[in-house]
Design goal:
There is one protein chain. 66% of the residues lie in helices and 5% in strands. By secondary structure, the protein is mainly alpha-helical. The chain has 2 domains: 6-78, Arc Repressor Mutant, subunit A (Orthogonal Bundle), CATH 1.10.10.10; 82-221, Tetratricopeptide repeat domain (Serine Threonine Protein Phosphatase 5, Tetratricopeptide repeat, Alpha Horseshoe), CATH 1.25.40. Strands 1-3-2 form a 3-stranded antiparallel beta sheet. Strand 2 and strand 3 (71-74) form a beta hairpin.
């Protein structure tokens, strides 16, 4: 997509994020032009809306935007999104076609860096965290199931897939350490813990959770 302006793109992203729900013009202005005075913000909104309608019409969607009585929405019946696909996948955690290792590989590739990662929109932060949390829970749950079935190598690969997206996620790192402990793989556990510890220190200047350290210490004592 080539957008006329960044705000035109953000306006469409916001409307899609709302999932077809009607949103008042004033609410949109307050969120997207919060640091601008009311008159200029309203003028910018009108310009962006015009540009958005023109762009979407040029793509074959002349009636996808519904502007009525001061509210605006996008007709989601005309489009589909990768987020909808992700949520359908996450809602069926135990279906074979949704819980296979290949399914996770495909979903990690599609999920990429996370929700609207290419453009940071402050209003999307809550949704981004929510989807990240769902993603991590699915990975951890599937890995636990594989480990229970004696497929520890597959469980480890699942957790590593999750860590490719977020190397510092505490739940994923803890789950992988616990898996190494079950496998009695002291070398892998120590190597992973030290790498996580160093990266956490470099990024945030903090130490790993104390339970992680104790887990590694107990493993080394066995």
């Amino acid at each position: 997509m080539k957008w006329r302006t960044n705000k035109t793109e953000e306006l469409f992203a916001f409307l899609v994020d709302r999932g077809g729900a009607e949103t008042r013009k004033e609410t949109i202005i307050d969120l997207l032009w919060e640091h601008m005075d009311e008159k200029r913000a309203s003028a910018n909104f009108s310009t962006c809306l015009y540009n958005l309608k023109k762009t979407l019409a040029g793509l074959g969607f002349p009636r996808i935007l519904m502007y009525n009585g001061g509210t605006l929405r996008v007709d989601m019946n005309q489009i589909s999104t990768d987020v909808q696909e992700f949520e359908r996948w996450a809602a069926a955690p135990d279906r074979p076609e949704a819980s296979s290792l290949q399914a996770f590989r495909e979903m990690v590739a599609r999920f990429g860096e996370g929700y609207m990662a290419e453009n940071y929109f402050a209003w999307a932060e809550s949704r981004r965290r929510q989807l990240d949390e769902i993603f991590v829970k699915r990975i951890v749950r599937a890995a636990a199931r594989e480990a229970e079935n004696g497929k520890k190598a597959e469980a480890a690969e699942l957790l590593k897939l999750g860590l490719r997206k977020d190397p510092l996620d505490q739940d994923l790192n803890m789950a992988l350490l616990e898996l190494y402990a079950q496998m009695q793989d002291k070398v892998a556990a120590v190597k992973h813990y030290e790498a996580y510890k160093n990266r956490l220190d470099e990024e945030y200047g903090i130490e790993p959770d104390g339970n992680m350290r104790k887990l590694v210490e107990r493993l080394l004592q066995t």
